[in-house]
Amino acid sequence: MASRRDQDVSGRGSITDSPTDGYFNRRQHPRDLYVATPASSIAELEGDAAVRYAGSSDSSPSRSQVIYTPTSTARSGETTPLLERDAPPAYTAVASAPVPAVEKPTAPTFGLFDSARASKRENAGGADDLGESGLPTPTVRRPCCRRPCAASGGTSKRQILLFVRLFVGIVGTLLLVGLLFPDHRDEAHRAPGVPERPIESEPGSSKNTESRRTIINVGSGSVSGAYALRDYLSIRTTSGSISITVDPQAADPNYPKPAVFEAYATAGSIRIDFPTRGAIPDRVYEVAVHSDMGSISGTFIHGQHTSLSALSGSISATILPYSAGNRSALRTDTMSGQTTVTVLAPYKDPGTVMGSMESLHKSKSGSMKLVYPQEWEGTVEGRTVSGSLRMHGRDLEVVREDKGYVRNHVVARKGKKNSRMEFNVMSGSVTAQIGDL
Question: Where does this protein have compositionally biased stretches of type Polar residues (predicted)?
Fold first, then answer.
């Protein structure tokens, strides 16, 4: 193999053989393409080159041909800067080799934007300059904005989450409104502009109405007077008291239905009085009374089911069971307030044993006083967390009694029937009288 440095010309450079056949290797010999020579030596080099290449039809130098390069005194791996006096006005190309064809990489695609970019290039007059020259077209990347792009699905996920939150909020609002303001098919809404005022019914006037269902809703105002109970009687107030007398009527002989009474007050006391003497129609009675902030009192006919509840307020009720033989349920519940319940002897057949009545009395904070008639027979079970517990009754027999500093539990029994009465008090004393003393 020929040496890289065969001879020295005028001390200005070195004669170098080409390492390849047909063209120069740019990576190994980058300085073989262009030669920097002083202007005084250009004529001499041109003459010498004319002699060497005379009669040759190939313009590319062969392995035996030489190219003049500047002198380099540096060791391997070092370069010597070009002096200012040796720098020519411009670089003179001695020889050039054909550049190998470079395969142009496929340009990245951007989906819908490809057609727009293609039309833009056609209007501009063809391909880019870089693409025509055979060099790869650089890919320009947009800077990241650190936000989820539409292609990654971030925007769609946020839209779905927003839609779900909006849907849940609307449904929750509708449910809350429906619970606070229940709608009835027979409910009559107050016309706009009509002032709210108390509603009062004269005694005996309710009997003149023919409707089997009576519904009274008052936003702000009290309700008082006497009202007939045929099939359904409902009285509701948002801000105001209820003080009425209920007059039960006979059932429709063609379509007999239970007599249902409801009373509800958001902020206000409730006083309901059912008759306890005289002619009371033989019907199935259902009573439900509730107050959020206010006391509940009165006399109630107990038929199949009776419920009295108050969130903040006392309960003082006298219960008249219509019949001793029918199975029934009685329930009272208060969060904060005193509870006083007195159960009378049955109206229809006094003196008959009441053996199928179930009662539950609950109170979070407040004392409780319970009185049951001698006709009642069954099991009594009571619990208190903080407070005393006392049971009285001539025929009452204590079966189990657990008393402590914190919790009291007593189980007693009267007679042989299957009635059951249970009471639970978190904070407060309890006094229960079952039967005669």
Answer: 56-79
* Interatomic CA distance for residues 219 and 267, integer angstroms: 11
pTM of this prediction?
Answer: 0.56
Which residue, 35, 66, 93, sits at the end of a domain?
A: 93
Q: Smallest Cα–Cα separation from 234: which of 257, 252, 214?
A: 214
What mean pLDDT, rounded, does the chain reach? 74
For the chain, the helix, strand and coil percentages under 3-state DSSP, each to the nearest 5: 15, 40, 50
Query: Helix or strand or coil: residue 113?
Result: helix
Which residues make beta-bridge pairs with 280? none
Q: Give the C-alpha separation, 171 to 152, whole Å.
A: 31
Rounded to whole angstroms, the Cα distance separating 67 from 45 reads 10
If one counts the domains in the chain, the total is 2
Identify the H or E element spanning 432.
strand 430-434
* Residue 421 lies in domain: 249-434
Asked whether residue 3 is assigned to any structural domain, the reply reads: no
Give the tens place of pLDDT for each residue, 49-68.
Answer: 444 544 444 444 444 444 44
What SS3 string covers 349-392?
Answer: CCCCCECCEEEEEEEEECCEEEEECCCECEEEEEEEEECCEEEE
> Of the residues 78, 93, 108, which one is the last residue of a structural domain?
93
- Confidence band of 405 (pLDDT split at 50, 70, 90): confident
Beta strands in 255-327 (DSSP E): 259-267, 270-273, 285-293, 296-302, 305-312, 315-321
Give the whole-angstrom CA distance, residue 20 versus residue 174.
86
Among 119-128, 245-254, 287-296, 339-348, the minimum mean pLDDT is found in 119-128
How are strands ordered across the β-sheet holding 66-70?
Answer: 8-9, 13-17, 66-70
Q: What per-residue confidence (pLDDT) applies to 200? A: 60
- 117 belongs to a structural domain: no
Q: Indicate the Cα dihedral angle 26, 32, 38, 40, nearest 10°.
A: -140
pLDDT score for 326: 85
- When pLDDT is averaged across residues 384-406 and rounded to a whole number, the result is 90
Asked if residue 408 has pLDDT above 60, the reply is yes
Q: How many CB atoms lie within 10 A of CB 201?
A: 18
Angle ∠(74,80,81) on CA atoms, nearest 5? 175
